[in-house]
Amino acid sequence: MVMQELVRQLREPSVDQEDKKTLLSLGVAQQDCRRSGANGEMDFMSAWIVSPSALPFLCLILGTHAQQAFRTEPRNLTVRMGATAVLRCEVLRASGTVQWVKDGLLLGPQRRLPGFERYSMIGNLKRGQHHLQIEKTLLEDEASYECQAGRSDSSQAIISSTAWIFMLIPPSQPYLMVDMATPWVAGSKYTVTCIAPDAKPMADITLYKDGVELTGAQSFTMSGSKDKLLNTHAEVTVTAVSSDNGRQLACHAQNPALFRPVETTMTMKVHYPPQPPVILGLEREEVKEGRTLVLECVSHGGNPLATLQWTKNEEVLSTTWEEDIVARKSSSILFMRIHPTDNQAVLCCESVNMVSSSPLSVSHKITVLFEPAEVTLLGSFTAIEGQDINMGCYATSSNPPVQIRWWLGYKELNTSGEAMEEGDNGGMTAMSNMTHRVSREDDGLKLTCEAFNKGTHFSKTQFDILNVYYPPQNVWLDTPPPDVPLRSGTTVRLVCFSTGGNPTATLTWFKNGRAVHDALRQTSFERGVARELILVLTPSDNMATFRCDATNKAKKTISAQTKLKVHFLAVSMKISTKQEVQRQGQMLTLECQSGSSNPQPSIRWSLDTVSRLQGVEQPPKRAHFGGVSVQSSLSLNLSSLHHNKRVICQAYTPELAEGANTFFKLNVHYPPEFSPKQPAQIQVLEDDMAVIPLLLSANPEEVSCIWLHRRETLVKEGSLHFHWSDDNSLEIKNVTRKHAGVYTVKCTNEEGVNQASIMLDVLYAPSVKAEKDPVLVNLGETADLICVADANPIISGMFTWKWLGEGEVEMGLENQQDESGLLTIHDVTRTHAGLYQCSANNDIAPPATVEVQLVVQFKPNLQKGAQWTKVASRGDGTTTAEVVCQAEGIPRVDFTWEKKGVRMDFANPRYEERTVREGSFHTSTVRVVNVSTNLDYAVFSCTARNSLGEDTLHIQLVSTNHPDPPSSFGQVDVSHDSVTLDWIPSFNGGLRQRFRVRYRWDQSDSFLYVDVFPPGATTFTVTGLQPVTTYNFSVNALNAMGESAYADNNAVLTITTKERPEGVPTDDDSVSQSASGLPAYLTVVFTVVFGVLLVFNSVGCFFGLRWKRRRGQTGGRGGSVLDGKKNKEEGGSHSTVSTANKYESREKINTAAQRTLLIDSGSETDSHVYESYAAGSSHYYYPSGDYMPPLNPHPEETRRHDVTHLPVDPHSHLYEDVRDRGLYQDILASTLPSPPSLFDHRLPNQRNESRSKAYPQAAERARDVRQPQRDSHLPFEQRGELV
User: Fold this and answer.
1) If DSSP states are collapsed to H, E and C, what string results for 966-1033?
2) What is the mean pLDDT of the segment spanning 806-835?
3) CA-based end-to-end distance of the chain
4) 1106: left (phi over 0), alpha (psi -120 to 50) or beta
5) What HEC string does 42-88 produce?
6) What is the pLDDT of residues 1216-1271, one digit of tens each?
7) 3-state DSSP call for residue 541?
8) Is the dihedral of CA 893, 898, 901, 905 positive or negative?
9) In this predicted structure, what is the pLDDT of residue 1206?
């Protein structure tokens, strides 16, 4: 029974590797006890001393027939949210499945509960501890819990008492519900509400104002945001006072989940009115005009501070002020310049803020002393000698009123009367009159009026100069002689002089009795005045009389005069005709008559001053200004060239060597005529607007035109494209290539009809297409890629070719044949395959492009390498293997398979073949169902064929095994304390492989080992090295079956680190501190305990060895009870493989490695990995000799002619397996795909896309393997043959 229970316990999936070892050692001891007979007690004691940890399991196994019972049951638990809760459950003699129940829901028997990431069962399974641990507790964890042990063969089910978890949840951040956006007003009452939300239990709220607790608060609760959560509301009424402004209003919330209350605060804002204002700077109420007052209005207190304004007679003067936050006052300075209008004005300053019931003010009335604004003299200051003048003086309003006095020069005159009246701004006006008879001696004296103000002690005066008139004495002229002729247009100067008189005389020029207004301004000289008349002589000046008059305000005139003789051209020219309409081909007669001229001229004719014409002259006649007039006629035959030309008539005077001209503009009627500059061809870009100009002339200019295109008349109305302007030019909007061609225009006027033709050439950007796509060509032949463009114009060099693939390829020869672009590539290689871009550019945007696919056909090329030539799978008939063959080739590749040289028959249901094609990549996968060692461990040959050739790959299906050694081991980088290495992985043995780096420095006797992380990485950096030190490095691969030899045939890579850079600190201080950091008493305790354990273990080993020698047994009978039992069932087969850990003694063991504990290195339990306890070291230490992990014999054998051959060397056996089911879990886990960069059988363009999908598929395959389908459950034809 004990052995059966051991077997059952070993088969339990929940028993870990360490417990299995303990159970196995216990089983060996128990079996030895039965064999030993009388010495059984000694054997059992020896086994217990060797394996002291087996005692609890022995008690557990021997007590499996007793009823299960709770040693510890869960109790109610109160937990703060976010803490870790542990419900304790300890079962004595547990034989059934133990699991927890939450609110009636079974959570499952696993230690890590699926679906509950925060839930797990913890404790020592050997002691029956199944404590429920809940991490980061939440509100949803508040529930009832039970611990249950299920029914078993030897015990009834038991259920613990119900335990509750009660959650303590602190309130969320409390918040105040009071509107502080609008400040409070002093004296008003306000309700303050504080809410502490989502607490369990409800929170207690306390309100404070400036640190003083507010009494009378009322509290109530409401439901929170979730079930079981409560919101606490607290309300209190507060009366605002001015001292509350800027102080804190606080709310504290507290419940048992908090160690201290949570708090929220708010600053109170309280408004209150200011104090009345005062005015500074006004000492007395009487102020002189023109003074500037600087007045300051100050108002203290108030929140906000007062706003100030100045008013004068209730009109606002200023609304600006300054605020002093520190002194808590507002002040406004008024700069006021005093004016007479300010007399008796009331000046007021007002202060107010938003909470004042009414403005507060202070006011003062001011009296202004001011002088009269104006003193005005009334009357005329000019008089003729001997007359009386009457004068008046008026002074405007002043305060006080003024006294007026008169002065002529320095002589005071007597007044004839004074008067005063009320004036503006509260002042008085004054008026004074005076009469005086003038003489020639008074001329030029000042007549002054003085107004004196007794209040301001200032006087204001007004004066003017007295002017007395008397007549001039003499006048004479300075002019050219009257009998000398002067040419018309000549400038002459006529000067008139006058002396004497007051004022000086005014000189006036007259021509034939009419005043001349364009004479120069009169000038003065020492004795009198002069005025000059500058004449540009005209025909009217011939024999005219020029007179100069001198007069002044004394009203007496004297004069002088002269005459001039002038030569001049004809004063007018006129051309006339009797024909009203002038038409092409008619004879036109023109008459030319000249006006008065002196002396007589002659008539000349010309056409536009270019060609001279001959006319017929008539006898002269007398005319104005003493001159003569002449006349002449001309006849002209008209044509269209005469239209708008000028016929010029000139009256030429020989004495003046020039003549007078006039012209007659010809208006010749003729039918439409096209200009020689009319373009015959117009070019325009497509989609632009084309303008075909019409260079046309006609008379009359009213011309009607029609446009024709391709013999069809163009209609403007309703057309989206055609439009012609007022000058009949044709506009074509959004021109397309169909608009190209010849356009004919016919134009008509009253005189006739005419027509012209214009060619429209439409230019457009190219469009391009491939003549053939894709282009297929065999490897090594010539490829021609052709693209054809539609464009106008077609220009040379408009085609360019571009490679669109990655990298660079050698482009071929580019050529152009009219509208076709040609790219020729000779000796095509596979690198030429891909997309090519043909671009066409005729200098009209945008250029056009087209892509042409070049497909290079080549024979199949199979993927080959370590990951392709081997496939590993167990041959026990429970697994499925996939043999993958991938080829690249064009055209389509077909696959054929052979096994051991024989064509495979896929009608057999044990073999399935699936082919996937992706571009040029073709993948054929043969799926072998229920892999059999005898039938399927063979060489599979894959042949890929197409029309150009074939390729063959041999793939070996083998048993899962240890990996092959890596290759190309080398250095990437080196620094003063690290070395970076890389390598290429080889075949992984059918399992997930990892890598381990072995190194040592040249002065060391043992190696250091470090596992590469992440496990699949092929580049790794070894750190913690010493500067300027030589190290030896090696790397090998490991999987669950074992490890490979070291890379590159056990090659050693020797590298010396660099010197330490300046400024980099050393590690001496930290090492010394860590080494001495262990207290002395702990060192003594650890030493004593270790010594006692060492003595007990030595005694147990001694007695155990003596007992084994007496029995004459060796240690080579297999590693476990299960193996022995299985060998017995298979016919008494024996294994020569030892399960002991072997180390070679060629090298010394690192002394630090002797003080180590066996740890899990991430692969198997008996891996030779030791974690050092040396201070500060994180490396693994291994014996320096080469080693291989011990393996049990594979359960499969090769039988031939009834002779059984067992492998002698476990390392040379082709089919290897692991000892227990625990290692199968590693094998199954290792069936997940290797990193894509190492062993990825997918297509290159599928690797990135399916990386996230590869692992779920592999996990699905792993689940299939974990629950194998036995041969007995399969049809006969699908059963594998087990040997």
Assistant:
1) CEEEEEEEECCCCEEEEEECCCCCCCCCEEEEEEEECCCCCEEEEECCCCCCCEEEECCCCCCCEEEE
2) 91
3) 31
4) alpha
5) HHHHHHHHHCCCHHHHHHHHHCCCCCCEEEECCCCEEEECCCCEEEC
6) 333 333 333 333 333 333 333 333 444 334 433 333 333 333 333 333 333 334 44
7) helix
8) negative
9) 35
Residue 8: per-residue pLDDT: 57
Measure the CA–CA gap between 607 and 589, rounded to whole angstroms: 14
Contacts for 116 with CB less than 8 Å, ≥ 6 apart: 107
Give the integer Cα–Cα distance in Å for 613 and 607: 7
Going through 1040-1175 in order, the beta strands assigned E by DSSP cover 1042-1043, 1053-1056, 1156-1158, 1170-1172
CA–CA separation, 1181 vs 1158, rounded Å?
11
Residue with token string 């991490």: 135
What span, in angstroms and rounded, lies between the C-alpha atoms of 1066 and 1060? 9
Amino acid (one-letter) located at 1227: I
For residue 200, the 8-state DSSP code is B
- What would the DSSP string read from start to end of 593-628? EE--BBS--EEEEEETTTEEE--EEEEEEE-GGG-E
- For residue 1252, report the phi and psi dihedrals to the nearest 5 degrees: -75, -15
- What pLDDT was estimated at residue 9? 54
Residue 1083 binned pLDDT confidence (cut-offs 50, 70, 90): low
d(CA 63, CA 95): 10
pLDDT for the residue numbered 366: 87
CA-closest candidate to residue 1161, choices 1182, 1143, 1137, 1131: 1182
Count the neighbouring beta carbons within 10 Å of the beta carbon of residue 116. 17
- Which amino acid is it at 1045? A
Note the pLDDT of residue 1257.
38
Q: How far apart are CA 813 and CA 488, in angstroms?
A: 89
Q: Which residues pair with 1010 in a beta bridge?
A: 997
Q: What is the DSSP string of 283-297?
A: --SEEETT-EEEEEE
> 265 pairs with which residues across the strands?
250
Q: Which of 5-14, 410-419, 756-765 has the lowest mean pLDDT?
A: 5-14
Confidence of residue 879 (pLDDT cuts 50, 70, 90): very high
Quote the CA–CA distance of 869 and 515 in Å, as a whole number.
132
SS3 label, residue 99: strand
Residue 916 near residue 943 (C-beta atoms within 8 A): no
* Percentage with pLDDT > 70 across the chain: 79
Contact in structure between 1134 and 1127 (CB atoms under 8 Å): yes
Q: Which residue has the higher pLDDT, 1133 or 992?
A: 992
DSSP bridge partners of 973: 980
Q: Are strands 681-685 and 587-594 parallel, antiparallel or unpaired?
A: unpaired
> How far is Cα 1191 from Cα 1015, in angstroms, rounded to an integer?
23
Nearest to 72 by CA among 182, 149, 180: 149
pLDDT score for 1253: 36
Q: CA–CA separation, 1213 vs 875, rounded Å?
A: 14
DSSP-derived secondary structure letter, 564: -
Q: Position of tokens 């060796």?
A: 1114
What six digits make up the tokens of 424? 């503006």
901 and 941 Cβ atoms separated by less than 8 Å: yes
CA 1137 to chain CA centroid, nearest Å: 68
For CA atoms 1184, 1147, 21, 1212, the dihedral sign is positive
- What are 392's strand-pairing partners? 378, 433
- Interatomic CA distance for residues 472 and 551, integer angstroms: 7
Q: Which residue has the tokens 């002729």?
A: 485
Least confident of 108-112, 363-367, 396-400, 1116-1120: 1116-1120
DSSP string, 119-147: EEEES-GGGTB-EEEE-S--GGG-SEEEE
